[in-house]
From TrEMBL:
<dbReference type="InterPro" id="IPR002347">
    <property type="entry name" value="SDR_fam"/>
</dbReference>
<dbReference type="InterPro" id="IPR036291">
    <property type="entry name" value="NAD(P)-bd_dom_sf"/>
</dbReference>
<dbReference type="GO" id="GO:0003858">
    <property type="term" value="F:3-hydroxybutyrate dehydrogenase activity"/>
</dbReference>
<dbReference type="InterPro" id="IPR050259">
    <property type="entry name" value="SDR"/>
</dbReference>
<comment type="similarity">
    <text>Belongs to the short-chain dehydrogenases/reductases (SDR) family.</text>
</comment>
<dbReference type="InterPro" id="IPR011294">
    <property type="entry name" value="3-OHbutyrate_DH"/>
</dbReference>
<dbReference type="InterPro" id="IPR020904">
    <property type="entry name" value="Sc_DH/Rdtase_CS"/>
</dbReference>
<dbReference type="GO" id="GO:0032787">
    <property type="term" value="P:monocarboxylic acid metabolic process"/>
</dbReference>
<protein>
    <submittedName>
        <fullName>3-hydroxybutyrate dehydrogenase</fullName>
    </submittedName>
</protein>
<dbReference type="Pfam" id="PF00106">
    <property type="entry name" value="adh_short"/>
</dbReference>
Length: 255
């Protein structure tokens, strides 16, 4: 059996990834801060008949990240897939951008992916097999105003993905990033509320006039489509794809 650690998998895209990896027969380390995490782990284990462990390690702290990886390795004996998915967002003009939000976004969206990759590396290297998948964003390839920290962190993920792909190549470790456009998750629902307040327009207008303006396919990206791409990257057929930042964003970055 193969095993996957998916950070931030108690909600949104991460939970969708967890569901599809469990369905595909992976043992899972479910992870995140949502209080329903342990119950979600239990129900996934029952529904898909795979082992599911749970961790609420706070990714702001590098030592908690190494404990998360150690726990998964102790529980499973091998870690084939690491999906660095957890992320947060804050939308504000640069002059009003709170320093604490800048630090938190850089820590959770960028540094945590580095520390988690560093901690799984020796296990993957020893097994001569590993798949690291970073859930980046269209904002890893393009910028938007008022998202300085998020755009910086996600562009950083593009660089980290390339550098680790080069280091992993001799060891059977591939490293890729998936760059989704807008997906309707709690993170995006929060942004819709914030944008409605800052632009003084309705939430429906935010979706139509702001959010999906850059997304030529005028609908949200289904989580299941992102999970299908991640499963491909994790599969044997993904073995020669590495260092890529793959857009799945309804044509956003074609512009
Ligand atoms: P979400 O808010 O639904 O879930 C975020 C997850 O991260 C949760 O499980 C949460 O508990 C966890 N998390 C947050 N802070 C944490 C911390 N300090 N320590 C540990 N866990 C923490 O978000 P989502 O929309 O599913 O986003 C998941 C990823 O996808 C993020 O990296 C995000 O940038 C990226 N993304 C999202 C969209 C979108 O439209 N939703 C688009 C492109 C990329």
């Amino acid at each position: 059996m193969k095993h996957a650690i998916i950070t931030g998998s108690t909600s949104g895209i991460g939970l969708g990834l967890a569901r599809q990896f469990a369905q595909a027969g992976y043992g899972l380390m479910l992870h995140g801060l949502d209080p329903e995490g342990p119950a979600l782990a239990q129900s996934l284990a029952q529904e898909y008949a795979v082992p599911v462990h749970f961790s609420d390690a706070n990714l702001m702290h590098p030592e908690a990240i190494s404990t998360l990886i150690d726990e998964a390795h102790q529980a499973f004996g091998s870690i084939e897939v690491l999906i660095n998915n957890a992320g947060i967002q804050h939308v504000a003009p640069v002059e009003a951008f709170p320093a604490a939000k800048w630090e938190a976004i850089l820590s959770i969206n960028l540094s945590a992916a580095f520390y988690a990759s560093q901690a799984v590396w020796p296990h993957m290297k020893q097994a001569a097999f590993g798949r690291i998948i970073n859930i980046s964003s269209a904002h890893g390839l393009r910028a938007s105003a008022f998202k300085s920290a998020y755009v910086t962190a996600k562009h950083g993920i593009t660089g980290l993905t390339k550098a680790l792909a080069l280091e992993g190549a001799p060891h059977g470790i591939t490293v890729n990033a998936i760059c989704p456009g807008y997906v309707k998750t709690p993170l995006v629902e929060g942004q819709i509320r914030d944008q409605a307040l800052s632009h003084k327009i309705s939430e429906a207008e935010v979706v139509e006039k702001i959010m999906l303006v850059k997304q030529p396919i005028k609908s949200f990206i289904p989580v299941a489509d992102i999970a299908a791409l991640a499963l491909f990257l994790a599969s044997d057929a993904g073995k020669t794809m590495t260092g890529a930042s793959l857009p799945i964003e309804g044509g956003w970055t074609a512009q």
